[in-house]
Specification:
Elements (H helix, E strand, L loop, with lengths): L1 H6 L2 H17 L4 H32 L26
Helix pairs in contact: 2-3
Amino acid sequence: MQNDLNQISFEAAFARLEEILEKMNSGAISLDDSLKLYEEADKLIALSNKRLNEAERKIETLVKNRNGEISLGADEKPLTQEFKLAGV
């Protein structure tokens, strides 16, 4: 299962999390199945957070100024730019 999770896209992980949420909210599944789904969701959330953090780091490096330092905003946090997918 872990290898399968490493191959899943962020979007597919998010869609699977939505499916799990719907099943768990339905109340039509057993306690054992609920626990299995909860464990799967926990792994998907961790993977999604990891991917989001990696993407944020990549974007921050693209926003570096010419001195090689990350440009900071007034709140002292790194400046980032909105990421837009082409064709969306």
